[in-house]
Design a protein that fits this description.
Layout: E1 10-11, H1 22-33, H2 43-63, E2 70-73, H3 76-87, E3 93-97, H4 102-115, E4 119-122, H5 132-141, E5 144-147, H6 161-170, E6 174-178, E7 197-201, E8 212-216, H7 244-259, H8 261-282, E9 287-288, E10 299-303, H9 309-315, E11 319-320, E12 322-323, E13 325-328, E14 331-334, H10 336-340, H11 345-349, E15 351-355, H12 362-383
Parallel strand pairs: 1-11, 3-4, 3-5, 5-6, 6-7
Antiparallel strand pairs: 2-8, 7-8, 9-10, 10-15, 12-15, 13-14
The structure holds 4'-deoxy-4'-aminopyridoxal-5'-phosphate.
Cofactor: pyridoxal 5'-phosphate
Biased composition (Polar residues): 386-395
Keywords: Iron, Iron-sulfur, Metal-binding, Pyridoxal phosphate, Transferase
Length: 406
């Protein structure tokens, strides 16, 4: 991965999107060079349908479910919308966590508005884990549909889905999980985990962008209510010609990820830990966000004391990472996720998410450590010229930081 004329880009933004896996690239390219609508009955159409079926089986193997429990979609956004719209019942509230992706929060609001019901938000602890007692309280008051993410996109913090399912089912609620950040990175077993619905997006683990899945447990769910109307594709639950090249890429990425899931997770975790330790040792004011163990192996969410994320990222253009803020209504807003965990606005604005993945190398991490430490020292020197400290946050000057949004 590289750019012309500048340092090679060190890609540490796998939670935004992962590079396409070679296996997925080969499968997608082959499908793009073939012709055939998976609904056509002639040989070309049958070949396309066979390729789609094989992809469905591969994703089912990764999730440990049955292929006919899977509906292909354009990604997790669509899958989340389809799940919530289909499972919500009039008069039932929707219970979600405070750290869900907008593809759940916004869908929940839309579904609740249409049904004249309410969205109930369950908080998280300082380490990003769910306040399970709040979930129990929410379910005790009214019947509900529960949607709790499997792993957070900003911090990587994992939900205890076994417990969430147990609590929800005991209260008679269906449970959906947005597992976009978990699938393909850690094992998941849907035969054991009694989730009713699950969403995923292929591009987070090496499939092309624009293809995803909604899993619907057989037998437990009322009918799926399609978001759009059209032909009988995906048994009428998702009308529209199937994205065969994307779907076969998703199947190939699922198979490649499943082949070495545990080894890959261990390797990525050790690179991530090395990165965090080196950065936090060199820059003593730096804090790590999220539960130290209950999180994805590839995510490092770091708050650089007094060093705004946008200044840091500008000072290390060779690193592709994300800041803990999002553009809302034309202004940069600090991350809802970090605020929900109890970080201040300033802390949230000084937070960067580094996310590693299957193609991250030890060399990437060694260079990233150097770039981050160097950027922190330069940003610190620019913002706090009257101090002698070279590391972030240990001794600020008289004048305080120049706020990037001032
Ligand atoms: N949920 C989570 C947790 C995500 O991280 C993302 C992607 N950022 C989505 C949903 C939406 O996925 P897509 O854009 O592929 O539909």
């Amino acid at each position: 991965m590289g750019r012309t004329g500048v340092d090679p880009l060190i890609y540490l933004d796998y939670n935004a999107t992962a590079p396409v896996r070679p296996e997925a690239l080969a499968a997608t390219t082959k499908a793009l060079t073939a012709v055939g609508n998976a609904s056509s009955v002639h040989a070309a159409g049958r070949d396309a349908a066979l390729a789609v079926n094989q992809a469905r089986e591969r994703v089912a193997a990764l999730l440990a479910c049955s292929p006919n429990e899977l509906i292909f979609t354009s990604g997790a956004t669509e899958a989340n919308n389809l799940a919530l719209r289909s499972a919500a019942r009039p008069g039932q509230s929707l219970v979600i966590s405070a750290v869900e992706h907008p593809a759940v929060t916004e869908a929940a609001v839309a579904v609740a508005d249409a049904a004249g019901s309410k969205v109930h938000t369950v908080g998280v602890h300082r380490d990003g884990t769910l306040r399970l007692e709040e979930l129990e309280e929410a379910l005790a008051t009214s019947p509900a549909l529960v949607s709790i993410m499997a792993a957070n996109n900003e911090t990587g913090v994992l939900s205890d889905l076994d417990l969430v399912v147990k609590i929800a089912h005991e209260a008679g609620a269906l449970v959906h999980s947005d597992a976009t950040q978990l699938v393909g990175r850690l094992p998941i077993d849907l035969r054991r985990l009694q989730l009713d619905l699950l969403s995923l997006s292929g591009h987070k683990f090496g499939a092309p962008q624009g293809v995803g899945i909604l899993y619907v447990r057989r037998g437990t769910m009322p009918a799926i209510r399609p978001l759009v109307h059209g032909g009988g594709h995906e048994r009428g639950r998702r009308p529209g010609t199937l994205n065969v090249p994307g779907i076969v890429g998703l199947g190939a990425a699922a198979e490649a990820a499943a082949r070495c899931l545990d080894q890959e997770a261990a390797r990525i975790r050790s690179l991530r830990d090395r990165f965090e330790t080196a950065v936090m040792t060199a820059l003593p004011g730096t804090r790590r966000n999220g539960h130290p163990d209950l999180r994805l192996p590839g995510v490092a969410s770091l708050t650089f004391d007094g060093l705004p994320a946008d200044a840091m990222l500008a000072a290390m253009p060779a690193i592709a990472a994300s800041e803990g803020s999002a553009c809302a209504a034309g202004a940069m807003e600090p991350s809802r996720v970090l605020l929900a965990m109890g970080l201040s606005r300033d802390e949230a604005e000084c937070t960067i998410r580094f996310s590693l993945g299957y193609a991250t190398t030890a060399d990437d991490i060694d260079s990233a450590i150097r770039h981050v430490i160097d950027a922190a020292r330069r940003v610190h020197a620019a913002l706090y010229p009257n101090t002698t400290t070279t590391a972030s946050g240990t001794a600020r000057g008289q004048e305080g930081p120049r706020r990037h949004d001032a």
